Amino acid sequence: MTRVAGIDCGTNSIRLLIADVADGGLTDVARRMEIVRLGEGVDRTGRLSAEALSRTRKALLGYAAEIAELGVNRVRMCATSASRDAENAQEFRDMVRGVLGVDPEVISGTEEAALSFTGAVAGLQAERPCLVVDIGGGSTEFVTGSDRVDHAISMDIGCVRMTERHIHSDPPSAAEIHNAERDIAAAVDIALTAVPGRAATTLVGLAGTVTTVTALAQNLPSYDATRIHHAEVSLADVSRVTADLLAMPVAERLALPVMHPGRADVIGAGALILRTIMERSGHDSLIASEHDILDGIAFSLA
């Protein structure tokens, strides 16, 4: 048995999975998530801000302490959209090395997609092939395959990027929503042709936007990963939740019992991405997965 730690640092959140790997499976020891908004402003400035780097460093210090305490044998940290796009990515890499003692791997969108697919399909009982979509803060990955990746593409549409680019009112105006929809739809159509997603039998959705929308569709009284993992959600419910979220100011979203405070201001754009993917791919339902790129990173250390 090997104890591993996988860290996924995206545009909006940084997450840790410590797991024991044995017989081709993972047994969770600890899962953690912090909203650090590393990619705040990157779409506009092209740089990681000092404040975002400081928030990320603070979260990593906590993760490093837990990794040491739990006796981890191997550590892999993957950094995705924001650190891939930023001019000062070297500053980020130096900070991570100083805290964790390992270099972060600033992975390509294609590798990000492959790791997400690996984590998502492990243990999934569903008709194949699958279209797996991982809606992040800065990008969304589209992957098709059965037991392995056949096609993958990463598009620069994510809940943080679309919010910063299009949504400036609280709640967003009809014009802002329309402009975001147009931008998202153009990217989704390119992705679905490239992968090709419309021919997939099952749609699987990953990451915080999808799991939060799923929790809201189920009217859960609190966030419950066991109720969300592998739950099936209809396009009708996703459309209803999306419309509700876009009509709410951030203060009302914050009051929702399943809403993480760091997600409330960007969840409207995230839900819009999810709804658009379902509409344009022709899928009238989605399976939500709590397992994603983080599990793929851990599997890669086995």
TrEMBL record:
EC number: 3.6.1.11, 3.6.1.40
Name of this protein: Exopolyphosphatase/guanosine-5'-triphosphate, 3'-diphosphate pyrophosphatase
EC category: hydrolase
Pfam families found in the cross-reference section: Ppx-GppA (PF02541)
SUPFAM superfamilies in UniProt: Actin-like ATPase domain (SSF53067)
Gene3D superfamilies cross-referenced by the UniProt entry: 3.30.420.40, Exopolyphosphatase. Domain 2 (3.30.420.150)
Entry keyword set: Hydrolase
GO molecular function, one term: guanosine-5'-triphosphate,3'-diphosphate diphosphatase activity
Domain Ppx/GppA phosphatase N-terminal, chain residue ranges per copy: 17-299
